[in-house]
Automatic annotation (TrEMBL):
Residues 340-563 form the Histidine kinase domain. Keywords: Coiled coil, Kinase, Membrane, Phosphoprotein, Transferase, Transmembrane, Transmembrane helix. It comes from Leptospira yanagawae. It comes from the Bacteria. Residues 256-308 form the PAC domain. Gene3D superfamilies: 1.10.287.130, Histidine kinase-like ATPase, C-terminal domain, PAS domain. Residues 299-330 form a coiled coil. It catalyses: ATP + protein L-histidine = ADP + protein N-phospho-L-histidine. It is an enzyme of class 2 (transferase). This is histidine kinase. InterPro entries: HATPase_C_sf, HATPase_dom, His_kinase_dom, HisK_dim/P_dom, HisK_dim/P_sf, PAC, PAS, PAS-assoc_C. GO terms for molecular function: kinase activity. Its EC number is 2.7.13.3.
Length: 664
């Protein structure tokens, strides 16, 4: 019974264990199935992630803006990305399997071992990313500088089987760096070799930099100064006190033109002008000051000399001032003297001229004296003209000249000048004309007509005196002034006379001055042009001359003239333009010239005895005896008749011209 119970218990236990392990196996099998399914799902996910990553890497590889090359340790190319294909101008299918250095980089064979040696060294270095920089070639001539980042790929056994190289073209950057370095070298050269000194001070006034120029001035080496000396070590005591006072008064301010005395290493000194600019950090704290220094020793020496000269000049100026004052007083005395003496001379001279006119008209005056009386009259008038010139000059210098304004027209002015000079020019067979006469019509002004006329008379008188053939022209040019009521009128007198040498033009407007040609050619005081110049100045204008020897002269002056708006009928009547060329009156003088030719022919026909006697009787003005002589000459000639008529009518000018033409 016990055995059966034990057997039953054992059988129950076995059954229990069998059931338990059966269920455990089923659970484990189920769990294994679940785990298998889960692992399978994870594997698929991992594979999907790997594919996505590979796709991302491939996209990066294909679209990267960098050169990517995969190559084996024997320098054979496995693959290149599209950017590398474009950069090296070589397709992927051609590049793969080629030699990296010779075929892709196109390194010359003689240099290829050097590059391969550099690349081989990366296999012996522990770093993951190894950087290198060397040149490659695109084609045969285009050399490019590329920086490479190399990564070694190893298999499961730790052996390298491939290298991934990523390159970036830095050619432009290298060129920029080289240019920057050259610029830096130029700037450094400019800094060190500038004609002025440069130095910088820190907050403790210690010199932290200095250029070669200032070092040469001071006689120190850079090592002796930079970081070791302060600015006070380079200054005299008085200059350092001055420097400190300025810095304390204007802390960290820009300094300009501070004059200091520097001390060299050998204890000699020199003067400088210092400019300083402070710099600050972003918080406004002082960092450093930068200074330029100019050696002004020579200038200081020059200033000392200049001060000495200035004192001497000041003393000389005082002496000159006294001399000028004395000269002014003497000039005033001279002007007063000329003014008084000319007034005193004019009174008796007017009497001489007046009495000579009376004597000339006296019927009881002997014939042989009438020529002398006429000569006395003409010389008196000439002397009066010179006295009037001196009086005018005295008035101008004494400041007593006044302006007498009157209304006139340019036509009226021209007609006056033409009536004064046309016959005199016609006598010399010189053409006197107005250029562009239409310009002066209907132009009326208010000004000092007498002074304008006097200027033009002086200029035309000179032109007549120094012109023997050709022409004398006068021209008026009118320009509007800044003030609408004023015109700028230009007066131009041009002649074809003997001209003036260039080297003598500067003196022709000075009083009592004549050119060599003028002084030897005709008589004169040399006052006409000086008076004209001063009259032009008095009227607010300016005068100038342009001339060449034997090429004629051109005198120009311009005056501001006030325009007249309301014009009287009388003034309009006086402003009708008449003749504009002296040729219009030549016929009056040509007749007399023809008469002279007939008389000269008559004289030349007779024997020299009669000719000399006739001219001698004309010279002593014994016209009675001359008429008897002419009557007794048995010759019927037109020249004889003309001469008899001139003698009977006392044509003194004709007879005097006849004497002059025969050099008597």
């Amino acid at each position: 019974m016990i055995d059966e119970i034990i057997a039953i218990l054992i059988a129950s236990a076995l059954l229990f264990y069998a059931y338990y392990y059966h269920n455990a196996y089923r659970r484990e099998k189920k769990l294994r199935l679940i785990l298998f399914r889960k692992n399978l799902s994870n594997a698929e996910e991992i594979e999907r992630i790997i594919r996505e990553k590979e796709k991302q890497y491939q996209d990066i590889y294909d679209t990267a803006n960098s050169i990517i090359i995969r190559w084996s340790p024997d320098f054979r190319i496995h693959s290149v990305n599209p950017y590398a294909e474009e950069f090296f101008q070589m397709g992927k299918d051609i590049a793969e399997g080629k030699d990296l250095v010779l075929d892709l980089f196109r390194i010359p064979f003689e240099k290829s071992n050097e590059i391969k040696s550099q690349l081989w060294n990366i296999f012996h270095r522990p770093e993951q990313n190894i950087r290198q920089e060397f040149d490659v070639y695109i084609g045969n001539d285009d050399k490019r500088t590329v920086t490479w980042s190399n990564r070694i790929l190893k298999n499961e056994f730790g052996y390298p089987y491939e290298v991934l190289s990523i390159g970036i073209d830095i050619t432009n950057r290298k060129i920029a760096e080289e240019n920057l370095m050259k610029s830096y070298e130029r700037i450094l050269d400019l800094y060190n070799n500038a004609p002025c000194g440069y130095h910088s001070l820190d907050k403790d006034n210690v010199l932290v930099s200095i250029n070669d120029t200032e070092l040469d001035w001071l006689g120190y080496t850079r090592e002796e100064i930079v970081g070791n000396l302060k600015i006070n070590d380079l200054l005299t005591e008085s200059s350092y006190d001055k420097f400190q006072q300025i810095v304390n008064s204007f802390p960290h301010e820009t300094l300009t033109g501070v004059e200091l005395e520097f001390v060299r290493k050998d204890k000699s000194t020199f003067f400088v002008s210092l400019n300083s600019i402070p710099t600050f950090d972003k918080n406004g704290n002082f960092v450093i000051s930068k200074s330029t220094v100019f050696d002004i020793t020579d200038r200081k020496i020059a200033e000392d000399k200049l001060n000495d000269y200035s004192q001497k000049i000041e003393l000389q100026n005082k002496r000159l001032q006294k001399a000028v004052e004395a000269a002014i007083k003497a000039n005033q005395s001279k002007s007063v003297f000329f003014s008084k003496i000319t007034h005193e001379l004019r009174t008796p001279l007017h009497a001489v001229i007046g009495f000579s006119q009376i004597l000339e008209k006296d019927p009881n005056l002997p014939d042989h004296l009438k020529g002398y009386v006429h000569s006395l009259y003409e010389n008196g008038v000439h002397l009066l003209g010179m006295i009037n010139d001196i009086l005018d000059l005295s008035k101008i210098e004494a400041g007593k000249m006044t302006e007498m304004r009157e209304k006139f027209s340019l036509v009226q002015l021209w007609d006056t000048l033409f009536s004064m000079f046309s016959y005199r020019f016609a006598e010399k067979q010189i053409q006197f004309e107005l250029v562009h006469p239409e310009v002066i019509e209907n132009h009326f002004y208010e000004a000092d007509l007498q002074k304008i006329k006097q200027i033009l008379v002086n200029l035309l008188g000179n032109a007549l005196k120094f012109t023997n053939q050709g022409f004398v022209q006068i021209e008026f040019q009118i320009q509007p002034g800044l003030d609408p009521s004023v015109d700028r009128v230009h007066f131009i007198v041009k002649d074809s006379g003997i001209g003036i040498p260039k080297d003598q033009l500067h003196s022709i407007f000075e009083a009592f001055q004549q050119t060599e040609q003028g002084s030897s050619y005709k008589e004169g005081t040399g006052l006409g042009l000086s008076i004209s110049h001063q009259l032009v100045d008095f009227l607010g204008g300016m005068i100038q001359v342009d001339s060449d020897l034997n090429q004629g002269s051109i005198f120009r002056f311009e005056l501001p003239l006030t325009k007249v708006n309301e014009i009287s009928t009388d003034l309009k009547e006086k402003s009708k333009l008449g003749p504009t060329n002296s040729k219009d009156v030549w016929h009056l003088t040509k007749a007399e010239d023809t008469e002279k030719e007939f008389v000269q022919t008559f004289l030349n026909m007779e024997s020299s005895k009669f000719k000399i006697e006739i001219l001698q009787l004309i010279k002593i003005q014994n016209f009675g005896q001359l008429l008897n002589l002419l009557t007794n000459i048995p010759l019927d000639h037109k020249g004889k008749s003309i001469l008899v008529e001139k003698v009977k009518n006392k044509r003194y000018k004709f007879l005097i011209d006849l004497l002059q033409s025969n050099n008597v």
